[in-house]
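<instruction>
Derive structure tokens from the sequence

<record> Sequence and structure tokens follow
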Amino acid sequence: MRPALRSGAAWLASATPETVDAFLESLSEGALMALPWMFEFWALPHQLPPEGVWRSWVIMGGRGAGKTRAGAEWVRAQVEGARPGDPGVARRVALVGETIDQAREVMVFGDSGILACTPPDRRPAWEATRKRLVWPNGAVAELYSAHDPERLRGPQFDAAWSDELAKWKRAEEAWDMLQFALRLGAGPRQVVTTTPRNVGVLKAILRNPSTVLTHAPTEANRAYLAASFLEEVRARYGGTRKGRQELDGVLLEDAEGALWTSAMLEAARGDAVPKLSRVVVAVDPPVTGHGRSDACGIVVAGVVAEGPPQDWRAYVLEDASVEAASPDGWARAAIAAMERHGAERLVAEVNQGGDLVESVLRQVDPLVPYRAVRAARGKAARAEPVAALYEQGRVRHVRGLGLLEDQMAQMTARGFEGTGSPDRVDALVWALTDLMIAPAQAWRRPRVRGL
């Protein structure tokens, strides 16, 4: 039985050799020759256009996730008809890259570019002097540079492909000019292929109701990537904020006025952890313990406390936070984190739970070394001295703290601007306050001479 187009590659990959042979033998000679060029048969889900009404389709993914191939195949689908000479949906296409050279080398001549994806009888001719492709049916695709938005003033199109928009230097100007030019036909459309970056133009496009999004990490396309490449980037960037952006294809946003910026968090990256003087586990317990509760923030950190406090260095070792756990569940998770890291103390905020927090913990471990802390100031005010430690380069992060770092990038002097509660950040603040802030304050406090 022939598989449906949208699941063809997956079907072949999981079928027995006998089934694959039977399927291939059932195809006519023409169908067998056409099969390698039938992108819908081989495509991954994120590479296929979403159904419904939309104007902009953003394909956002990690490096090597197959974005360029998806963009090139979408252009083909727009300009090609049933036969090589038949008209397609679009006849005038804009191909916009960061520079003309990048547009030509990636979008046109690249390994996943338009020419490589097109069968010989439909392949467009490249007119180098005019920087354009011309198909056998008369459709034309012209190349443009985002560095020169004014060149988009005047031409008009019924389709467009913008590649790596998030790294365009003049992204907003170029995007706006392209929108004015995208005015031919009954329903002009465009595709954007990009690795995510925290830039205003991309966020504005994603907020537009006429935009649809497909997303995939680098791993989704692993069958077409060198194993050594995947091994290297996993080892170097796995579990880091940069890895979440460049490999997982996640758009990481810094809130305006964030206490911790992406640059600060990347600067805090460090895998080597020296011998630590003290290790603590800090807990920000949820108010309740049902399925709709906030997460329980649990963060493990340690300090090298040698010399005066201004010379101390802290290391954030683990984000052991748990989602929607019962009181017994988060208490066990916190004490397990203590055991994993040999922590000397468990610090827990008790503003909401009071004595109940200690009671829950001692039901799991009656002898747990415990200190209750109460918040006398707001979350942002408590976080600011800890953020200052990062500005001074005195805190390092191990890998695997992506969710914690996402919350940190949403904490501002005005408060938390993410969704839900900053439970992970709260636990981090309590941990570093216990390790760094409170001891420094005690060190500076004047000693009273005895009589």
About this structure: The mean pLDDT is 87. Residues 423-444 form the longest helix (22 residues). The two ends are 97 Å apart (CA to CA). Residues 1-37 form one domain.
